[in-house]
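Quarterly update from the structural biology core.
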Amino acid sequence: MPLVTFIVGTVPDIIKSIDVARELATNGLSVSIYDTLQNRSDEFERHRDVPIIRSSVVRAECRDDLDWVASCASEIAELCGDLVVVQGDTYSALAGAHGAVRAGAALAHIEAGLRSHDPLSPFPEEMNRVFIDTQSDLLFCATRTDFDDLCATASVVDKKSFVVGNTVCDPIFQHRDHLASAATRPNGVLVSLHRRENYRHREQIIKSLSRLITNFPGTEFRLLKRGLLATSEAAEFGANATMIGLTEHLHFLEMLTGSQIAICDSGGILEEAVTLGVPVVCLRRTLERGRLVEGVDCIDPGAVEGPQLPLLIERLLSPQLGGRGPLRETFGDGQSAKRIATLILDHLDASIRRNEGGHTDPDRDQRVLVPFARSKAAESPGPVKDFRTDQRSRRFTAVASGADACDS
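Predicted structure, tokenized:
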């Protein structure tokens, strides 16, 4: 029985990967999760229905981030199964990709193809995601835009690439009835800021938030106590500010659904808010192409002290006609985890039959299934090849095709 190893290290990693792992386990596969413990404490909710291997690498004892990645990769190479699944573009995902290459395991990438086409924005995520895509055998893109960018920046020859929607949307559709009540009475502003590149603007962002909260005394501002706000206290901002500590994901979705606006710098929260119909103000200089959609306004964090932010918040807080409509399927329709699990099962089944010398329908290996309704069929230029370690020494040429620019 093949063993599939998922690599996680952040809260979004777990949220976006756990349902895929469960689907595979339900279908009889051996599944394990390797947790790098990248940027959170052990107090976060643990999913006991899937075996979890906690990293023995102590990040504080490593020389730097790359030393930590290399150490985790070595451990992953020793512990991983026949297929390694990574999600997104974190250092944990990078470690998983390196570990899979060392072990001679196949590699699958959830949320493949995402691009800003700027190596420094976001950094190091843009470089991580491009590298991971070049090493992956299975590439699961959230949208057709991501698939097109994948084709422009990494050769998809001898790979299987799919457009499946984003797994971050799955919990929203699973709990849609529960979340519906919060959507009928939205109030307040939810704030979550954590991006590495925004730390250099932290002082300006904190000052701007303080003024914003003071200027809207009748509006509750719920600030997530993490990232840029990890050391802040509610008293610094005013009586209408509330600090929110570590919370379960469903509770976070309830808060997001019940908010009039979300201020964030996170792509994941942006996707969740758009799905729920919550207006988003994103503090980013650039966004990955395809994310600057209806309901999203972008502000350069370097210009956050200007008049744009308060004017934007005032407009978004004004009384709105009617309630929110149905959930949006901009980034997914709630079935992404099931699709990915099915495609992984098909891939492993085909690999087993090849290894046993059985006949494999060549058309099946070349066909790319795209059941996500918003996306067109994405044709793969060639069949999946059997993994060989020496075939991993591939080079790529990044072709910049432009990102969504954010006006300051």
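The radius of gyration is 21 Å.
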